Amino acid sequence: xxxxxxxxxxxxxxxxxxxxxxxxxxxxxxxxxxxxxxxxxxxxxxxxxxxxxxxxxxxxxxxxxxxxxxxxxxxxxxxxxxxxxxxxxxxxxxxxxxxxxxxxxxxxxxxxxxxxxxxxxxxxxxxxxxxxxxxxxxxxxxxxxxxxxxxxxxxxxxxxxxxxxxxxxxxxxxxxxxxxxxxxxxxxxxxxxxxxxxxxxxxxxxxxxxxxxxxxxxxxxxxxxxxxxxxxxxxxxxxxxxxxxxxxxxxxxxxxxxxxxxxxxxxxxxxxxxxxxxx
Amino acid sequence: xxxxxxxxxxxxxxxxxxxxxxxxxxxxxxxxxxxxxxxxxxxxxxxxxxxxxxxxxxxxxxxxxxxxxxxxxxxxxxxxxxxxxxxxxxxxxxxxxxxxxxxxxxxxxxxxxxxxxxxxxxxxxxxxxxxxxxxxxxxxxxxxxxxxxxxxxxxxxxxxxxxxxxxxxxxxxxxxxxxxxxxxxxxxxxxxxxxxxxxxxxxxxxxxxxxxxxxxxxxxxxxxxxxxxxxxxxxxxxxxxxxxxxxxxxxxxxxxxxxxxxxxxxxxxxxxxxxxxxxxxxxxxxxxxxxxxxxxxxxxxxxxxxxxxxxxxxx
Lengths: 279, 315
Prior knowledge:
The complex is a heterodimer.
Chain A: E1 14-27, E2 30-36, H1 38-43, E3 49-53, E4 64-67, E5 70-72, E6 77-82, H2 87-93, E7 100-107, E8 118-124, H3 129-140, E9 144-151, H4 160-166, E10 169-174, H5 184-191, E11 199-203, H6 206-219, E12 222-226, E13 242-246, E14 258-262, E15 269-271
Parallel strand pairs in A: 8-9, 8-11, 9-10, 11-12
Antiparallel strand pairs in A: 1-2, 1-7, 2-6, 3-4, 3-7, 5-6, 12-15, 13-14
Chain B: E1 7-9, E2 12-14, E3 18-20, E4 42-44, E5 61-64, E6 67-70, H1 79-85, H2 87-91, E7 96-101, H3 106-119, E8 124-128, H4 144-157, E9 162-165, H5 173-182, E10 187-190, E11 194-197, E12 199-200, E13 205-206, E14 212-216, H6 221-232, E15 239-242, H7 248-257, E16 261-264, H8 267-270, H9 274-288
Parallel strand pairs in B: 3-16, 4-7, 7-8, 8-9, 9-10, 10-15, 15-16
Antiparallel strand pairs in B: 1-2, 5-6, 6-14, 11-14, 12-13
Helix pairs in contact in B: 3-4, 4-5, 5-6, 6-7, 7-9
C-alpha cells in the first residue's frame, strides 16, 4: 500500500490494494484470509482492525470490518479469520492467491499490553481472532500468556494451534464436549486461586465478558474487551457502531456517565469495566 | 488548457463543486487523513444540535442493495463542545467551511448561528431541516409554514450564506425549494435521505432500532437526479445535489441536471478517496469534452435523444 501521511505530518491510515497470499481453511467453517501488505503488517497492533472490500460495483455496498488475527511484519502479511455469514464474507471466501483486496487500515484503538507479568486471553469463536495477535505480540515481548477459549466444536477452535505455540496454558470449553465448567471463565476462576494476571483480554462473547467483569471486580486485575459491532465507515464518520460505555474521569463504578461511543474510533478495545452490557 | 473548476454558491467561490454530505465526513480525528480536504470545494460538518444528544439506539445502519439505511439521529456533544472540539479543526481548513446546523425550532437554529458567527471560522451554514431520524412525524422541510419560518429567522440572524437542506419526502419539492428561496436561502441542498425501512425476515423484526430511517447511496441517485432537475428549474438560487454520487461521472450527471455543486455522502464510507478522485475526474471530463469551465455544465443537459412529438421513442 502507498504510505499516506495525514496533512500536518501525523501518520494516517493506509488505503490501497493488497494481494491475497493464502486462503486458509482450518475447518469448522472458519477461513483465514492472508494478505500481503507490509505497511499494514508493520503499522497495525493487536486489537486494531481493517475494512476489507474485494468486489466491484456497489452491491454489497459497504466494506467489512475484520480484526487482525496475525500480524507478520517480517513476511509483510496480515491474517483475518472469518466465517461466511453473508454476501460480503461469501465474496471474500471466493478469493484466490494473487487476487486484490482493498484494505483500509489500521483502524481503532489497540489493546494496551502491560510491561511485564502474565496475561489471560478469554475468547469465544471468531472473537478469539484478535487474541491470537495479542498472544503473538505478548509472548514475543516475554510476557506469560494463558488462553481460556470457548467454541462450539472442540475439534474446531479458531487459532488453537497458534495459541498452543505462544501460550503457557490453553483451556478449552467446547459446547459439544461438556466439561467441568459451563463457561471458559470457569477455568479462569479456578486458576485465579493460584495465578495473578496483570491484564485480561476478551472478545467474542457477551456472556464471557460479563463473567470476566465479575472476576475483575473480585480480583482487581485490568481487563480489556474488543467490541464487535455493525460498522459502515470504520473511521469515525458515520456513527453507526456505537455501544454504551461509562465515560469521563470518574471511576466506572462511581457515577461515570454512560454514553453511546463509537467502537471504531474510541474502541474497539475498551477497559472492560467501562462497557455496559444491558441485561 | 486547464479547466476552470470553480463554481459560485451565492457570494461564495468554491474551488470545485465537490464537498462531503453532512454526517459522512469529519474534521480532526474523524478525518481518515488520506488526502488534504483543502482540495475540495467545501467541507460540510456533521450537524450541530445545540443541546447534547446521544442519538438513536442501535442498530443505526443497514445495508440494502447499492445503498444503506441509517437512523443515527444526530448525536451531538452540544454547542459548547462543538465550539471547542470541532470549530478549531474546521477553522484551520483552507477551503469553504460549511457548518451544518440542526434544531427542533427556529430559536435553536438562531442560537447556534449567533454563537458560531461570534466565534468565527465558518463561511456558510447548511440548515439541516430534513433529518428523518429525529422522531418527528413532520419535518421542518416537510411543512411549508415551518420551513419559511425557520429559514427567515436564520436569514434575520446572519449575513453569512444559508443553504437549506430539503426533504425528498414531499410530493412537490419545487414548491418547498421556492419557499426556502423566498425566505432568504442562498442555496438549497437536494436532498436529505429518503424515508425507508427494512425487515429481518428470520426474526420478523425491523432491522433499524427506530424501525424507519433514511436511505442513501447509489441506489437513490436517479431519484435525486430528477429532484435536482425539478428543483433547479423552479428556483434562481443554486442547487447543491446530494444523493448517491460516487464518482466524477455522477457529479457531471448532477451538474447537467442543474446542480451547481455536488455532495458526496455514503460513498465516503465505501471509498474514502472518492471525493479527491471525483475532483480529478471532473478535470479529466472537462478536458475530454472541451469544457472550459465546469460551471458551463450546470443545467446543460440536452433535450432527450430520439424523442418523437408524441413522446414515444423514435425507431
